[in-house]
Amino acid sequence: MPSALSLDLRKRVIEALEAGMNQRAAAARFAVSVNTITNWIALKRERGDLNPRPVDRIRPLSADPARGFLLGLVKREPCLSIQELRDALAAEGVAVSWGAVQGFLKRHGVERKPGPDRPACGAGSRNAGPAAPSQTSANRLSPTPAINWEGTHSSRVPETGF
Fold it and tell me: How many domains does the chain have?
């Protein structure tokens, strides 16, 4: 995650602007974007200083009271999709993203793939394993030889003469 630019840099940029330099020249000189300088000007106008705003820390799902609920649900019904887990959490009043649920499961060592100790969830499930390849898909993978102008098979592409 990116960190805030230093307070010293912020002060030097604002001092250059107050000395008469325009924003584009200051952006080029200090290697920051014009948008960043605009945000710093607004920050100084709003708060009177250039200290960076506090970063909102995203609280991990494991710290929520829903931790026990979610782990229990996965233990009772291991074949639920991540979307179904999100829907169950939403019914409990906890709105989380797909990535938050996936990260939670990963942090707690919940295995989602079938294995020797965890059978596939069903025939229609994505966890059921790969289907047997059909004859047509096997044919699509084999290269087709080029055909020369006389109609016999050749391994090279015919020349057109153009």
Answer: 2
Q: Report the distance separating Cα 106 and Cα 162, nearest Å.
A: 59
According to DSSP H, which parts of the chain are helical?
Answer: 7-18, 23-30, 34-47, 66-76, 82-91, 98-107, 135-141
Put simply, whether the predicted model's pTM sits higher than 0.85 gets the answer no
3-state secondary structure of 147: strand
Q: Answer yes or no: is pLDDT of 143 > 90.
A: no
Is pLDDT above 50 for 135? no
Domain that holds residue 70: 61-107
In 3D, which of 1, 48, 5 has the Cα closest to residue 30? 5
Cβ count within 10 A of residue 4: 12
